[in-house]
Amino acid sequence: MSRLEITAPDKAQLVIEGLYKDLERRIESSPPGLCPVDMTRAFLEMCHTHTCGKCVPCRIGLWQLKNLLTDVLNGDATMETLDLMEELALSIMEGADCAIGYEAAHMVYKSLMGCREDYEEHVRQGRCTCQYAQPVPCVSLCPAHVDIPGYIALVGEGRYADAIRLIRKDNPFPTTCGFICEHPCEARCRRNIVDDAVNIRGLKRMAADYAGKVPPPPCAPSTGKRIAIVGGGPGGLSAAYYLQLMGHQTTVFEMLPELGGMLRYGIPNYRLPKDRLNDDINAILETGVKVEFGKRIGTDMTIQSLREEYDAVLITIGASTDKKLGIEGEHSEGVLSAVQFLRDVGKNQNPDLTGQEVAVIGGGNVSMDAVRTAKRLGAKKVSIVYRRRVADMTALPAEIEGAVAEGIEVQTLMAPSHIETDENGHVKGVYVTPQMISKIKDGRASVRPTGAPDVFIPCQTLIVAIGQDIEYQHFEEAGVPVQRGKILTEKYGGFDNIPGVFAGGDCASGPASVIKAIAAAKVVAANIDEYLGYHHIISCDVEIPEARLDDRPPCGRVNMTEREACERVCDFNGVENCMSEAEAKQEASRCLRCDHFGYGIFKGGRETLW
Length: 610
Fold this sequence. Notes:
39% of the residues lie in helices and 14% in strands. The chain is of the alpha/beta class. Helix 2 (36-48) packs antiparallel against helix 5, helix 3 runs parallel beside helix 5 and helix 12 runs parallel beside helix 21 (514-531). It starts with 10 loop residues before the first helix and ends in a 21-residue tail after the last helix.
């Protein structure tokens, strides 16, 4: 006889919610190369199920859009159909009563504008011409196109040295990337459909830890050609490695005392132990690469002098200078750039921060490296000052979580306005202007001042980590094209007006990840080889285990564990622990072997040479 009842979700609602989660996983793991027209129609049909049916633009307009998309897919459309779709989508966006209608139409409009060539191909050819260039999602999303299913299968069988040999075919830094790679390969892992992405980076780290010393493959017979490489970072060393394997003699010119670039002088030891970095560098040097230290381009040599002495020149200087804040007091004593701060620590010239309050401005990975390093150098309090939200930070989530666990204070929605100094000109603190979140521009929420008064954050050391630039003045003077602070190369990595000179890595692309620098080095190395009149092939004769035919039941992902925060902040030893062999074998068994099953087998499964 009760008037009200406590409601609970019925069985149908629970099933639908489960289907939503399944769909979410499928969308997350959808590989690159899917037909945008077909995907747009599928999304539109799902959106149309949400409509309440009250307004005509949404109820009827979306249905008509779906019919037009079907015509395009069936080969029954004309170019006028595409114009009609554009007009109809805009009409629905303007006339629909709520977000269900106008956002669904906006999705179709964006697809039509951004993928116009695909729509026109459907019209001209009468069918879908979209094909996979690489049907294995993890391989296609790895910038260096490492044979990921192959080395995972090798790890699963305990063949760790073979796994390292296979990785080196495309990436001569397997140990380094096992520690610090941003693992874009995991973003579209099809295992997401079942449970969670395979821990690809963790398996690479495990292979590197258990393989021991693995010598590089033998080099091809000498060609007698000599190549100068300016910069001994990951890009320069990777190019030197592959060119050396091809039989060319490379000489790396490095301005700092040791090789590695930002790997050595930008990434702290707790993330990348330098003895492990040396394992990769020593393997590269074993191929016969020559090195000259303490040589700076523009001071000790010029592009012209190198071009006269060598058959080809490669510029891989990275992005080793800092960006400025552009605020009052920026040049005061105690204000440091994160690049210089981390470089000094990399040289074992550790500043004494004992008992100090330290603030770091920025929200990227370099900022996280700086705050966690400052904590290890004895700072009493370390703060991150960022003008956006934590969700907007470009740092990896694991890095942000690690910093917070170590006691770093995160102050968001605070934009630096000016720096306060004492009577001796030393930084005393920074004034920040409170911000509020505002309109979304280019997919990212912008900020604007709240109108509240500035807030003072006391600090005796202020570290600026808002981005990096390159030292491009010498190259500009030498006639190398420079645009917006980057060396402007053609797609092949060279310059049409300067034959024999090439560039790659961060100096050409802007600051990016290690694996992207390695990928650029592969491209440039192959094109330098072609320029010199050769066509050498890089391959690997490791035999990949056959794919297993047994089921892959749902199984949790093995994540890397870390040392306790209270312990690790006291030293610079590695933070992350390696998997055990049992964990690695289980994790490797989760791989669905997309190189064999599904579309992969029709494409041959893998690229065995380049």
